[in-house]
């Protein structure tokens, strides 16, 4: 993979020195990234729809497949888009709030699962392989040391702080996590990947996700808080009270998305926000997964409203709050699979769907070519 991004490509930052960049430099780079995100190319999307309307079928009878094909044409700025490479960007980080008992699972699972992803044996590896995609794993903030230490090269810090007591991280750390996520997306795109999906692992991360969704949508904590890895009723009530406290203690301002991420977010969530922004900047479609990636998407869309046009939804996670987040983004879910794993597993299921959508455009015959009678249908 090409890691030789030049300064210009990387929003004026030295891509090798994000860790030593000042807060002001990171802030400026984010501004460059955000302000470079354009609208879809509507004429390319319309031309794709014309192509599809010429195929031997009643108009729009392939529903969402047609929507996806037109969206990708608009994103890529051509009526004949091609997918050259696919990847799940899996961001791993720990969440200090787990000490409050907000997850049914112990914290060490984050690092243990990270090694499983690297070995290619987890749910996301299976489903990404099925979709012809690679999984690019990044330790953006696991709490414990990893072996070999090179695995920690992108780590911003050793887990977030407990959001029920104060901010998850400093503003500078949030900016670094966002821009690191953007950089990882940029490297993948430079290596030829032009379809991305968001994935994550981080025990406890449905807690900051619910906090973010509550802050960005205005819905109550109760409406957006779910059981995560499987909390029982009483523990769920406790999780809600912790999220309420986190919002009360930190007073996040929804008009300042970086501030919200730094106060009640997580490192893996911030990195996904950055990856989504970079995908939009580079005109690459990005498939969303469950509640955690949707929380990241809300922050990204708050920073750059047009970037929602580059998002392709996947499933409606069983986790409460996910659909509310998608609705706020103006996006409908596509799969109703009762999944609640995360990692990018729901998103990965969309790779074959996207391929199917573009194959319809490329391989299906037109009325003219097939000699089929046209009409008002
Ligand atoms: C073995 C295992 C593998 C996972 N892979 C993703 N998650 C998912 O569960 C976690 C979020 O749920 P909560 O907020 O309740 O901790 C995240 O790591 C998420 O990716 C997993 C969870 C477990 C236990
Ligand atoms: O919606 C998700 O992605 C999710 C739900 C529960 C636990 N982990 C992830």
CATH topology: Rossmann fold
Tally of alpha and pi helices: 16
The first-to-last residue Cα distance is: 48 Å
CATH domain class name: Alpha Beta
Radius of gyration: 20 Å
- Give the amount of beta strand, in percent: 5-15%
Shape: globular
Helical content band: 40-55%
* Mean pLDDT reading: 97
Q: What's the number of extended β-strand segments?
A: 5
**Oligomeric state of shown chains:** single chain
Query: How can the largest sheet be summarized?
Result: 5 strands, parallel
The fourth-level CATH homologous superfamily is: Nicotinate-nucleotide-dimethylbenzimidazole phosphoribosyltransferase (CobT), large domain
Whole-number total of structural domains: 1
Protein described:
The chain has 377 residues and is α/β, with parallel strands linked by helices. The protein has a single domain, classed as Nicotinate-nucleotide-dimethylbenzimidazole phosphoribosyltransferase (CobT), large domain (Rossmann fold, 3-Layer(aba) Sandwich), CATH 3.40.50. Helices cover 47% and strands 7% of the residues. A 5-stranded parallel β-sheet has the order 2-1-3-4-5, sandwiched between helices. The protein is globular, with a radius of gyration of 20 Å. The model has no long low-confidence stretch (mean pLDDT 97). The site of alpha-ribazole-5'-phosphate (RBZ) has 18 residues, from helix 4, strand 3 and helix 7. Pfam families: DBI_PRT. Keywords: Cobalamin biosynthesis, Glycosyltransferase, Transferase. Pathway: Nucleoside biosynthesis; alpha-ribazole biosynthesis; alpha-ribazole from 5,6-dimethylbenzimidazole: step 1/2. Its EC number is 2.4.2.21. This is Nicotinate-nucleotide--dimethylbenzimidazole phosphoribosyltransferase.
């Amino acid at each position: 993979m090409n890691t030789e991004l030049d300064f210009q490509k990387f929003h004026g930052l030295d891509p090798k020195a994000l860790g030593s960049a000042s807060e002001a430099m990171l802030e400026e780079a984010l501004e460059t990234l955000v302000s470079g995100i354009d609208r879809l190319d509507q004429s390319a999307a319309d031309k794709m729809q014309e192509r599809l309307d010429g195929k031997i079928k009643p108009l729009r009878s392939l529903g969402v497949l047609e929507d996806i094909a037109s969206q990708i044409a608009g994103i890529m700025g051509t009526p004949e888009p091609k997918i050259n490479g696919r990847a799940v960007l899996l961001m791993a980080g720990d969440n200090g709030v787990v000490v409050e008992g907000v997850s049914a699972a112990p914290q060490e699972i984050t690092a243990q699962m990270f090694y499983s992803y690297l070995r290619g044996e987890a749910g996301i590896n299976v489903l990404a392989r099925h979709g012809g995609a690679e999984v690019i794993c990044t330790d953006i903030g696991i709490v414990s040391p990893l072996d070999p230490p090179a695995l920690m090269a992108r780590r911003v810090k050793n887990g977030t702080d407990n959001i029920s007591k104060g901010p998850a991280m400093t503003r500078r750390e949030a900016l670094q996590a966002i821009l690191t996520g953007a950089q990882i997306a940029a490297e993948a795109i430079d290596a030829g990947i032009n379809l991305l999906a968001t994935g994550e692992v981080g025990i406890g991360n449905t807690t900051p996700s619910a906090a973010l969704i509550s802050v960005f949508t205005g819905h109550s904590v109760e409406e957006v808080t779910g059981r995560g890895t499987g909390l029982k009723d009483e523990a769920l009530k406790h999780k809600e009270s912790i999220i309420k406290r986190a919002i009360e203690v930190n007073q996040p301002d929804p008009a300042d998305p970086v501030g919200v991420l730094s106060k009640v977010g997580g490192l893996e969530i911030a990195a996904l926000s950055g990856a989504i922004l970079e995908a939009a900047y580079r005109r690459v479609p990005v498939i969303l997964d469950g509640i955690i990636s949707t929380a990241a998407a809300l922050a990204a869309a708050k920073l750059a409203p047009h970037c929602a046009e580059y998002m392709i939804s996947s499933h409606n996670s069983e986790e409460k709050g996910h659909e509310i987040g998608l609705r706020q983004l103006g996006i409908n879910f596509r799969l109703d699979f009762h999944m609640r794993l995360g990692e990018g597993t729901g998103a990965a299921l969309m790779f074959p769907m996207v391929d199917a959508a573009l194959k319809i455009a490329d391989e299906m015959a037109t009325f003219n070519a097939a000699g089929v009678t046209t009409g008002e249908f």
